[in-house]
Design goal:
Blueprint (H helix, E strand, L loop, with lengths): L1 E19 L5 E20 L5 E5 L11 H13 L6 E6 L10 H16 L6 H11 L3 H6 L2 E6 L3 E4 L7 E6 L6 H11 L7 H10 L2 H6 L2 E2 H6 L2 H12 L4 E4 L6 E5 L2 H11 L5 E5 L5
Parallel strand pairs: 1-8, 3-4
Antiparallel strand pairs: 1-2, 2-4, 2-5, 5-6, 7-10, 7-11, 9-10
Helix pairs in contact: 1-2, 1-3, 2-3
Length: about 280
């Protein structure tokens, strides 16, 4: 028997760093949105009493460094389920080092699949508790939809959804290490919550135009990368209502209310970049 599930990417409609904690983590304020770009995770039994992870992207690790492997290990430890052998396969579509949360999405899908596969009966809250030990974004990927995230990203509050739209995502030909991005933020210093409160308010109004006008990411401000600015300008010039880098980058997204404009933008960007996707919001 095997079970499969889509592992949905996320974008940050707003992202603020409020400070650095004594334990080395950062205090965040963010608005997160699931999108239809996804990997596919499959679980099936095996006979070797091991956790085996397979991935069609050869550059990604398949051992304890892989988020899916880590999630599976934590699941068995928490649920008290005997592992008689399990195989987890990942079919990648979400580019890595993009700020789209591919590793977090895969880990979340693995936890939900294992819960079903072994009939463990863990609640959403229990799965999120395990998820947090894998990574700060994994609890959101368990829940999906639209949420305000505080703390290190684990304090989630469901908020009004992003109105229906098309989301154009483009990753330039380079990635950004999350660790390196936070190092730059540490050098830069931290400010107040610049973007997130306004985004929560705009979403509450149900207006796509207002939401697009409130897009913002402090990492984009801090890093100041010319290629990010160039991609953002190309998306805006194609008719997007707003555009922004997601997470620690390097992917940039734009919100469109016109499928014709979005398709035209995708066609233009594909002449310069490999990773260009047209997506929709995913509801919880």
């Amino acid at each position: 028997m095997s079970l499969s599930m889509n592992a949905y990417a996320k974008i940050n409609l707003a992202f603020d760093i409020a400070g650095r904690r004594d334990d080395g983590y950062h205090e965040l304020s963010s608005v997160m949105q699931s999108i239809s770009l996804h990997d596919e995770v499959t679980v099936e039994g095996s006979s070797d009493n091991k956790i085996c992870v397979y991935c069609d992207e050869p550059s990604l690790p398949r051992d304890e460094k892989n988020t899916v492997y880590k999630a599976a290990s934590l699941f068995f430890a928490y649920a008290g389920v005997e592992n008689e052998g399990v195989s987890l396969s990942i079919k990648k579509h979400i580019p890595f080092q993009s700020g789209l949360g591919g590793g977090s999405a895969d880990a979340a899908a693995a936890l939900k699949l294992l819960n079903r596969f072994f009939c463990a009966g863990l609640s959403m809250e229990q799965l999120c508790g395990i998820a947090l030990k894998v990574g700060a974004d994994v609890p959101f990927c368990i829940r999906c939809g639209t949420a305000a995230a505080e703390g290190i990203g684990e304090k989630l509050t469901a908020i009004s959804p992003l109105p229906d739209c098309l989301i154009l995502v483009c990753k330039p030909g380079f990635g950004i290490s999350t660790g390196q991005a936070y190092c730059e933020a540490d050098k830069h210093g931290f400010g107040s919550k610049k973007y997130s409160p306004a985004m929560v308010k705009a979403l509450g109004c149900g207006s796509l135009a207002q939401s697009a006008a409130c897009l913002g990411n402090c990492f984009e401000d801090i890093l100041g990368l010319k290629e990010i600015t160039a991609v953002k300008s190309a998306i805006l010039s194609a008719g997007a209502l707003g555009a922004c880098m997601t997470g620690s980058g390097s992917a940039v997204f734009g919100l469109f209310d016109s499928s014709e404009k979005a398709e035209r933008c995708k066609t233009r960007l594909l002449t310069r970049y490999k990773d260009v996707f047209l997506c929709k919001p995913v509801r919880a």
